[in-house]
Every structure is written in structure tokens, then in C-alpha cells.
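Fold it.
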Amino acid sequence: MSETFNVYCDESCHLEDDKQPVMLLGAVWCPLDEVARLSREVQDMKTRHRAAGELKWTKVSKARLDFYLELVDWFLAEAPLHFRGLVVLYKERLNHALFNQGSHDDFYYKMYFSLLSKILNPEERYNIYLDIKDTRSRLKLRKLGEALCNDKYDFTSQMIGHLQNIRSHESYLLQVCDFLLGAVSYRHRGLSGNPAKVAIIRHLEERLGRELLRSTPLREEKFNLFLFTPREA
């Protein structure tokens, strides 16, 4: 009997002209029947540490460092939870016209396909939720869903139950994805101005036993990273 998973996706530095050296997409996923419990645990952690408001990497500060370190340990200890991140390196090299890959939006969804296609199993069912990017996302979401199903020879589209945009305040697990992807983004942009963020990244890398600057084997399911290097013109 197939199991249903929820997949929560976010992005960082994804705009074409934002002057950032990298573009990142990430996904956190777990079985559907674990979503309520895991969400309650995030809420409980926030309450104990008096961490008001949304959990977001941009809000990380020294005042709540204990909360963020506990969150990292909690994520790594929870067997049902998984993370996969895709990092596009040297974003300034992207030349969509030269390599016949359409617009930057087309490339964005191709990268989402690459991120998600390695997660999905045609024997299971998935509800996929993406943080809202813009008002034109619905049509492209449908095309992304069709491509993902066709890639797994699921021509009746049974594998994906829901594929939709949501806002981050609607899901604690989407906020966890924002937090983890933010750590990867901060590391790859070579930033060091926020001591709390540096401490979180150091703690995460120590717990993982590796840096966040290289790809992991595809079989790594807890904290998987794939680094994509564009071809040079």
C-alpha cells in the first residue's frame, strides 16, 4: 500500500538580476501522517524559547541562538524528516539564450524539476507545496507536475495529489525549509557578518560531519545537496 508524503519547497536568490553569485532551491519532506506532530513540536520549541513570529533565516539573531541550535538538533534527530537542496553556482554565467533553455523562469522550473525528481518514488503519493513566487505560477506549476509524472512514467498523474503554492506562515515545515536553505545560502555566499548564523552553520556542519560546500551522494536522504555548475559560454 502506497504512503503519502508532504513536500515543502522554498527558494533563495532565485531572481535573475539580484547580483547574487548563487541560486538555491530546497525541499523538506515527511510522511503526511507525521506533519501534525512535527508542526506541533516546532510550535512548542518556539513557545519555550519565546521565539515569536515566523521562523525565517532572515530573522536569525543571537538572542534566540539556543532555539535555532535546538531546531537543528531536532531536525537531524527526527527520522521522518528529510531535506534536499540544489545550489546553482556561478549564477552570473547563466546564458539562457545561448544554451536554448528559454527564459530565466523556464530555467527556474527546470531546476525545480531537478530538485524534486530525485525525491519522488512512483510507488508513493505526494502533496507538493511551493512558497508563492508570483501571480503567474499556476500554469507553470501544472507543467511542472506533468513533467514530474511523465518522468516516472505516471501518465495518469496518480503520484502527485496536490501541487500548489502556499504562503510560508501557513506551514511550520515550510518555515523549517526556509531556515535550512537559508543556512546553505549563507554558506555559499561566503557571508560572516551575523555571528548567530555562523554558529548555526558551524553546528550543522559538525553534526553532519561535512561542510555545506559540496554535493552529497544521491543516496544521502537526511541532508542531501546537489551543486549545479552552469556551462561557460
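The longest helix spans residues 172-188.
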